[in-house]
C-alpha cells in the first residue's frame, strides 16, 4: 500500500472515532429501573412504548442516522479489511497490503497450522493470532524435545496435525460387556 493509501485509512479510522464519541450509549428500556434487566440494547416493541415513539425525555433509540462513516465500515482497528478464512487456499487470494486474515473458529488444528504457514510465507497479518499461537507453541515444544527435526514447512504442519488425532470412542456394546464381566 502506498503512503497515501495508509493515510486515507488512518483518516477513516480517526473519523470513525470522532463520530463514535458523539454517539449516545443505547440502553434497554427500563434497565435503570429493574436489576433483572441488563443494559444491553433491545428494541422497544410495545404499542404505547415511549422509547419506540421517541418521546422527549426518554433515551435515544438505535436508528440509521447514527451509522458510522462509509469509508471506515468493515475496517479493523489496525486499518486492514477483515477476511474470514477457512483453508490455506483462501489465503492465497488475499492482498497483504490492504487485507488481514481472521481464521474461522470452526477450523481444526491441522488446517489452522497450514493457514499459519501460508500466511507467514506471504507476510499476511493474522487478527486472531492468540488462538493460532497454541499450534505454534506445540510445534516448538516438539522441536525442543528433539522428537522433531526441522522439516519443511508443509511437513511440519502435517506432523502437528497427526499428533492431535482424536481417540476412538467406546461403543455401548463394549461398555455393557465390561459391566457384565465385573458383576
What does this structure look like?
This protein is mostly helical and 183 residues long. The protein has 2 domains: 3-72, no CATH class; 81-163, no CATH class. The chain is built from 6 helices and 2 strands. The chain has helices at 3-22, 88-91, 109-122, 129-145, 153-163, 172-182; strands at residues 81-85, 99-103. The chain has a two-stranded parallel sheet. Helix 2 (88-91) links the parallel strand 1 and strand 2. The radius of gyration is 26 Å and the shape is flat.
Domain count: 2
Instruction: Indicate the low-confidence ranges by residue numbers.
Output: none
Quaternary structure classification: single chain
Strand order of the largest sheet: 1-2
Number of strands: 2
How is the main sheet built? 2 strands, parallel
Cα Rg: 26 Å
Fraction of residues in β-strands: 5-15%
**Helix content bin:** 40-55%
Give the helices and strands as they follow along the chain.
HEHEHHHH
Number of helices: 6
Alpha-beta content class? mainly alpha
The whole-number mean of residue pLDDT values reads 84
Overall body shape = flat
Rounded to the nearest angstrom, the distance between the terminal CA atoms is 73 Å
